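[Meeting: bench + compute handoff]

Bench side (C.D.) handed over the final construct sequence. Compute side (W.E.) agreed to return the predicted structure before the next meeting so the bench team could plan truncations. Sequence as handed over:
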Amino acid sequence: MARPLLAVLLVAGCLACAGASHLLVHDCSHRHLDHPGQQADLVLAGPGVAAGLTAALAGLLPPQPLDREAAQQVGSLVKSSVFDRPAAVVLLNIAGASPDDGTLDTLATALPDGSSLRARVAAGAGAGSAPADAVLSALAAVAGANPDVAFERLDASALKGCGAACLEGHLHDAAQRFGGVLEPRGDDASLQLPSGGALPLASAAARLFADELGALHGAARSKLRARADARRQQRAAREGAGDDVAVFHGTLVGLQALRASGAPRADADLAAAAEALAGVLRELAAEAERAYGADVVYQITMLGDAPAAAAGEAEGEGAGEQGPDGAEGREASLLTWRRRALLQFDPSPAPTPAPSGPAAAKAFAAKATSYGVALLLIYITAAVLFAMVSMPFKQDTLLWGRPKASTE
């Protein structure tokens, strides 16, 4: 199969240490990225600038106005045009990636050849590196700034009624497609990789990562194929009219769980997990190519350290999240953080607070007055109409003359 020409934006956060965020932009079609080339010293002055760059590459509205210097920096990196925005954007947030151990390089092999640049995201002008959570929140704000664009999830929530067995089936299909083999043998379960390595799936962290891989593969196939069918029908009905941009997003924390597990062979497991994730990304790119051709933009936010939730929060808000059996402590905290991250990309309107005190009394008086005036006007209108249709009218003497006595 020919290598697709895809415009790919790869955002890597928290790469060297907790809180450090880096940006890798990879453009295969040369339509969206300007002045390509490795720029290790490039610094974006704040998460808002990174979100502005994301919005410009995707053809969406930025979450907030940029100052003059930030706008000039984004404009120097992007060939922005309202008439040339991609047909689809895939946003993936991956916690636990790092260039130091080769994880980032392994994931980059899943992307087609093209020009690229790297940048570090600072907390502000002249400040240190921006925290990973701040970068992700800024990127998620792009969804709030574009309410007319649907952000569809690429995770287990997109697979209705899909339990552990269903996710394992999706992982088995994904492994076959990228050349691996899933060995489901209880405590000895493992994912055999094409390179000859293997990822044991006995620990809670490994099961979390495996479930995320299966959910990503299954949701991508389901969503992308459904949108491809709908797009073909839409184009046939509208005779080739332009489509709105389709945005798909997902958040993965399994790599970080593996990195923080402290297992004896954690480094080997992490390398195997990165290779497996790269294989799933290749299959996702193939599905996107079948659905949208070359007009696709990928953005992968790589967060080296997702902030862990408190123990009470993990037991409460994240308890219902789909995950491996017996996920406790660190894994449960990561699940809670993942759920919150997904909610940021799919915000719901905040309820309007009910007025209280003097404001409530004033609102009640205004409402009562308006109701009283409306009822009075209705009564007056009805009385006037009744009077007009029931009042007696004098006969016109020119039309009906008085009767005259006979002269005979």
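W.E. noted at the follow-up: Residues 7-345 form one domain. C.D. will use this when planning the next construct.
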